[in-house]
Amino acid sequence: MIPLLRATVLLTWLCVPAKAAELTVFAAASLGDAMADLASGWEAETGQTVTLVLAGSSTLARQIDAGAPADVFVSANGEWMDWLAEAGRVLPDSRVDIAANRLVLIAHDPSVQSAGDVTTGTDLPGMLGADGRLAIALPEAVPAGIYAKTALMKLGLWEAVAHRLAPTDNVRAALALVALGEAPLGVVYSTDARAEPRVVVAGQFSEDTHPPIRYPAAVVSDSPAPDTAAAFVQWLTSEDAEVVLESHGFLKPGPGE
């Protein structure tokens, strides 16, 4: 369960400009490349400036809850959006799912071949070697890490690697560890693996090993530009936005999901 840290956590503010742009969007780090293209598309269509703040969904949610100036929040899972909704920090009626994703096992060694699905028989300790660690976003807070831990537990692989983790603040940081060879293996989203030529996909996690990976977007309740924010959130579900998301490997969230 996600802890309520509103009153106790000491926040280090992200780099948000002192003078707010017309629209400030807090988005999950795994959406970084896609959101940059989406922001450019919105700016070209409307002439309105978009400032992006990218980090782990947990960090962003806590910042919003503490009063960080944001108009829109796009999370990598529903739990952090639920947490903000319960606190009255986002407008529930504005919430929509804009994309979906898959979870994959990546490797630094280019000779590693994809073995299809990661299964109960996958020898992760053997693949890690004597001293290697598994790069993973924080498994107790960051969506990618939560999904990864859930999948590994479902497959009975968690206990074998729980003491050999290289936890990071967000999924892109986990990706970087593998890309740089600091960790031989990592668990990230398929879109992350696609965006980084220095890693290879060693396997993918079946969708029945973890909850569906969805990206909800919503208007922050104290946005100074709620109408513009609402229009942007709805635009993220448009055909133009869908084309951009699919070009980065994101999937449609699916009807009723």
The CATH level-2 architecture of the largest domain is identified as 3-Layer(aba) Sandwich
Alpha carbon gyration radius: 18 Å
Report the biggest beta sheet as strand number plus sense, adding barrel if it closes: 5 strands, mixed
Order of helical and strand elements: EHEHEHEEHEHHEHEHEEHH
- Give the spatial strand order of the biggest sheet: 2-1-3-10-4
What is the H level of CATH, i.e. the homologous superfamily of the largest domain? Periplasmic binding protein-like II
Could you say what the CATH topology of the largest domain is called?
Answer: D-Maltodextrin-Binding Protein, domain 2
Strand content: 15-25%
Low-confidence stretches: 1-20
* Integer tally of domains: 2
Family: Belongs to the bacterial solute-binding protein ModA family.
Protein name: Molybdenum ABC transporter substrate-binding protein
GO cellular component, one term: outer membrane-bounded periplasmic space
Signal peptide: 1-20
Detailed description of the structure:
The protein has 257 residues and is an alpha/beta fold. The chain folds into two domains: 112 residues, D-Maltodextrin-Binding Protein, domain 2; 102 residues, D-Maltodextrin-Binding Protein, domain 2 (3-Layer(aba) Sandwich). Helices cover 34% and strands 20% of the residues. The protein is built from ten helices and ten strands. The protein has a five-stranded mixed β-sheet. A five-stranded mixed β-sheet has the order 7-6-8-5-9, sandwiched between helices. α1 packs antiparallel against α10. The longest helix is centred in the N-terminal third of the chain and has 15 residues. It is elongated. The N terminus is likely disordered.
